[in-house]
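Tutorial handout. Part one gives the primary structure; part two gives the three-dimensional structure as tokens.
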Amino acid sequence: MKKSKQSKQSKQSIKKHKTRKQSINKHKTRKQSIKKHKTRKQSIKKHKTKTISKSQKDNKKTELYKKFLQNRIKFNLSQYNKGMYKSKTQAFAIAYSQTNNQFQQ
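Part two.
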């Protein structure tokens, strides 16, 4: 009698164990599918942010270009006043060429 009870209990515990494993496996696969879905969303978000960041970088480059040009014009005009250049237009032209050399792509 004891053996039969033990064998029944062991069979039941094995069945429970199998069902637990199956439920765990189902849960894992569900988690994996959720992860895949999240990574798809993240990749789409990353792609969108890349385009935004490029435009922001372009704005920063143009701002830096403008600031550098203004500083160059001020410096070259001061050099013109000291007698370094023959005319203001020459000072402006040199300022533009210096900034273009600095920001070559």
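Part three, for discussion. DSSP finds two helices and no strands in the chain. Helices lie at 2-82, 88-102.
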